[in-house]
Amino acid sequence: MDYINAFWVGGAICALSQLLMEKTKMMPGRVMVTLVVLGAVISFFGWYEPFSEYAGAGATVPLLGFGNLLMKGVKEAVDQEGLIGLFQGGFKAGAVGSSAALIFGLLAGFVFNPKMKK
Known about the structure:
0% strand, globular
């Protein structure tokens, strides 16, 4: 049942994102930022953990999960460092995932030899 919940929740998030792009003419970047901010807001209210337990990877893999990760990092850093943690917590929490995306993207570029479109 965990796989089914992850599949339908992740699919619903993707479908809602596609609807936002189609019906509101929002650009993909704005939709992505909206999802990250929504994940942070849901995390702030404490609703993300129960949602994540129910949906599993369907909730943690999309951009909502990145917003949750940033918010958790900020909360922990503020508890440990005080006000300066507000500025450093998100960077510390998201550094590994962002670095991995950059490195694997670079490796994929070397392996597949992409060309510019004309």
